[in-house]
Write a structure and sequence with these properties.
Layout (H helix, E strand, L loop, with lengths): L2 H9 L3 H10 L2 H8 L4 H8 L4 H9 L3 H10 L2 H10 L2 H10 L2 H10 L2 H11 L6 H4 L6 E2 L5 H11 L8 E6 L2 E7 H5 L7 H4 L7 E2 L4 H11 L3 E5 L5 E6 H19 L14 H27 L2 H6 L7 H24 L8 H31 L2 H31 L9 H24 L2
Parallel strand pairs: 1-2, 4-5
Antiparallel strand pairs: 2-3, 5-6
């Protein structure tokens, strides 16, 4: 939908046309369209969204839009919105809103809802409890298929998902049954004959990354969450697991680029915050690079005797850094997908060593031939070739080992990515280069 046309209809008070446009749009697309409006237009347009869509649109808005609308809502509008929001979405919104708006929302909801919100807010940020919803379909094993379907019809509208139903006995999870099984089974069959008793579940304090991994591994639509006593307290749905995957991927990308992660979008983050997230790592890497400079100054005599040696430093450092980055990227991915464990460290090192030998020989030969053609100097070709081969071996071993060591000591492997590894490899490549050069040329 073109923003200009939409705003023009809105400003000319063609509310019927605006409402008809919003009625046929997807909730996510509506939230995206409204994000381009100014505050006055946003409040007006939101009030024209159909009631059955408004809560989902609100849940897909960014924090600044949500904060503004909560401030603008009347008590009646806020109450209606919260009634339609799923509990996990309400909690997610409250975690990002200013304290005064959180208080206003909590004053609007019932005591039972407030107790549930407070319970969910008290779970650790990285736990399954923090992303679960308490709105699931619960069945009893004594029910028949017919009774279960009637129960779903009565209560399903208020549940986040009805595709998987949970069979409980005094809140103890004893089985699951899918909507497909209910719809394709005889009405008189009891639930206890249909339910699956081999259940994949998590604890409220299970790390949410582990939860997301279970969704990926088993292709789940929902995952039951149990408390410390083994009683069912909620479920994590696929959309929340996807949010975790996106969040973790974003965090890893920022760390791999030597930046502190931010929960805000690029445009919502101020210039000062952008700088703050980047400057710390840049300072660390900048001062780390002075080690390389110190090493280079120790070989001033080599530069004086053969000035041409200096021209090959950037190529050696860049090649070493690139090789280390390739290895670290593959290992970090393998760790993230649980394909590689710390116990595999020697297998990984052996594999990367063999890869580095092949790559090193290929690049060394290519550079050796180039140097012979350009400079007709066998000794120089030998120095550069040997330096390249050794540097590539070292950089690939560093690139594969550091992420595994980080994982072992409970650090995020993503911090051992390109910038940090490049800085370390630069130092190693300079040491290798000048040690080989001084021995070959006997400087």
């Amino acid at each position: 939908m073109d923003k200009t046309i939409f705003v023009e209809l809105l400003m000319q008070h063609h509310y019927k046309a605006v409402r008809s446009i919003l009625d046929v749009m997807n909730e996510v697309d509506i939230a995206s369209l409204l994000s381009e409006l100014d505050d006055k237009e946003l409040a007006l347009a939101f009030r024209l969204i159909a009631k059955d869509k408004a809560a989902e649109v609100f849940a897909n808005m960014n924090n600044s839009m949500q904060s503004y609308l909560v401030e603008m809502f009347t008590e009646k509008e806020l109450r209606e919105l919260l009634d339609d929001l799923y509990m996990d979405d309400t909690v997610d919104i409250l975690e990002e809103l200013p304290a005064n708006l959180v208080t206003r929302i909590l004053d609007t909801v019932s005591q039972s809802e407030r107790n549930m919100i407070n319970l969910l807010l008290n779970y650790p940020d990285d736990s399954a409890g923090s992303i679960m919803t308490t709105e699931y379909v619960g069945l009893r094993q004594s029910m028949t298929v017919e009774e279960s379907m009637a129960h779903i019809k009565r209560t399903g509208i208020h549940k986040e998902t009805i595709y998987t139903c949970y069979v409980t006995d005094k809140r103890k999870l004893i089985g699951i049954v899918t909507a497909k099984e209910l719809m394709t089974s005889d009405d008189k069959i009891p639930i206890k004959d249909l339910m699956e008793t081999e259940i994949i579940s998590v604890n409220t304090h299970t790390d949410k990354e582990e939860v997301a991994e279970l969704f990926r591994k088993y292709d789940l639509l929902a995952l039951p969450v149990l408390d410390a006593e083994g009683l069912m307290v909620g479920i994590v749905t696929f959309d929340d697991a996807m949010d975790v995957m996106v969040e973790e991927a974003t965090e890893d990308i920022t760390k791999m680029a030597a930046m502190s992660p931010s929960e805000q979008t690029y445009f919502d983050t101020s210039v000062l915050n952008h700088a703050k997230h980047r400057i710390t790592w840049l300072l660390v890497l900048m001062f780390s690079a002075t080690i390389t400079g110190t090493i280079i100054t120790r070989y001033e005599n080599a530069f004086a005797a053969i000035p041409l040696l200096v021209s090959f430093i950037p190529m050696l450092m860049d090649t070493g850094g690139n090789c280390g980055s390739q290895s670290s990227t593959l290992i970090i991915r393998g760790i993230a997908l649980n394909e590689i464990q710390f116990r595999d460290i020697f297998r990984v090192m052996f594999k990367e060593f063999r890869v580095s030998i092949v790559v090193g020989i290929a690049l060394a030969l290519a550079n050796g031939v180039r140097i012979l053609i350009m400079y007709h100097d066998v000794s120089l070709a030998l120095v550069i070739g040997l330096s390249l081969a050794v540097t590539i071996v070292i950089s690939k071993l560093i690139g594969c080992v550091l992420p595994l060591l980080a994982k072992k000591i409970n650090l995020d492997p993503a911090i051992m990515a390109a910038p940090l590894i490049t800085t370390m490899v630069d130092t190693c490549s300079i040491l290798v280069y000048f040690n080989i050069a001084t021995r070959v040329f006997a400087l």
